[in-house]
Amino acid sequence: TPPDNLLEVRDLHTRYGRVEALSGVSLHVPRGHIVSVIGANGAGKTTLMNSVMGLLPPSQGTLIYDGQSLAHTPLETRVARGMCLVPERRDLFASMTVYDNLMLGAYSRRRTNWKGDLDHVFTRFPRLLERRTQLAGTLSGGEQQMLAIGRALMAKPRLLLLDEPSLGLAPLIVRDILLIVKHLRDDGVTVLLVEQNARASLAISDSAYVLETGVVKMSGPAAELARNPELTASYLGG
Ligand code: ATP
């Protein structure tokens, strides 16, 4: 039987004026899996995430989410149906507390059981509980990334789109963040993860796609790609 995909991307093209940043990307994200997209700077990873979320209009291609086309689905409907993007810039409210940032995540989906959701986020991120009255702008880089993910979880997403969560973080913190992402899968969240950090993301993913200048160059089960000599040479440091 074919995999039960929460998200299917078929032949996606996205352009900035005359420049095509995605030139026919196809991928699938099975329900309950972590799928990573690996690629160097400028490969088109952020463009892919923004196109899937609906922040950028694709010029061609099809997006199928939970069995339905997203062609005429506005951003707020995508959010209401459980799609949630954690952008590369994190977009926190720096002069608001950790607690208030989390509550804004609940507001975005008009969650009523926010107390239970908050307890769950604090269980996953004890560091945020300790720092709940601290201003978001004064958190370390790793803590800010935890807060960005925690805020997304307050909206009870079904598909979490994570754009380079490890960006700018020290290797040990990267490991912490990616371990947390792995635990999200245990909570039933499906994850599309974009990363430059190939080795660390393959280690927690079920499958992966290698993106190069807007085209998928390789794909397969994460464990297989991690052993692929071609990928090893270019992305895994030999
Ligand atoms: P990085 O890891 O550096 O963020 P990326 O893989 O996320 O890279 P994108 O940001 O998606 O790559 O960019 C893909 C291509 O599209 C690049 O060549 C980039 O210069 C171009 N691009 C991105 N945003 C714009 C824009 N607003 N206008 C014009 N070109 C853009």
From TrEMBL:
<protein>
    <submittedName>
        <fullName>Amino acid/amide ABC transporter ATP-binding protein 2, HAAT family (TC 3.A.1.4.-)</fullName>
    </submittedName>
</protein>
<dbReference type="InterPro" id="IPR017871">
    <property type="entry name" value="ABC_transporter-like_CS"/>
</dbReference>
<dbReference type="GO" id="GO:0015658">
    <property type="term" value="F:branched-chain amino acid transmembrane transporter activity"/>
</dbReference>
<dbReference type="Pfam" id="PF00005">
    <property type="entry name" value="ABC_tran"/>
</dbReference>
<dbReference type="GO" id="GO:0015807">
    <property type="term" value="P:L-amino acid transport"/>
</dbReference>
<dbReference type="InterPro" id="IPR003439">
    <property type="entry name" value="ABC_transporter-like_ATP-bd"/>
</dbReference>
<keyword id="KW-0813">Transport</keyword>
<dbReference type="InterPro" id="IPR052156">
    <property type="entry name" value="BCAA_Transport_ATP-bd_LivF"/>
</dbReference>
<keyword id="KW-0067">ATP-binding</keyword>
<dbReference type="InterPro" id="IPR027417">
    <property type="entry name" value="P-loop_NTPase"/>
</dbReference>
<comment type="similarity">
    <text>Belongs to the ABC transporter superfamily.</text>
</comment>
<dbReference type="GO" id="GO:0016887">
    <property type="term" value="F:ATP hydrolysis activity"/>
</dbReference>
<dbReference type="InterPro" id="IPR003593">
    <property type="entry name" value="AAA+_ATPase"/>
</dbReference>
<keyword id="KW-0029">Amino-acid transport</keyword>
<keyword id="KW-0547">Nucleotide-binding</keyword>
<dbReference type="GO" id="GO:0005524">
    <property type="term" value="F:ATP binding"/>
</dbReference>
<feature type="domain" description="ABC transporter">
    <location>
        <begin position="7"/>
        <end position="238"/>
    </location>
</feature>
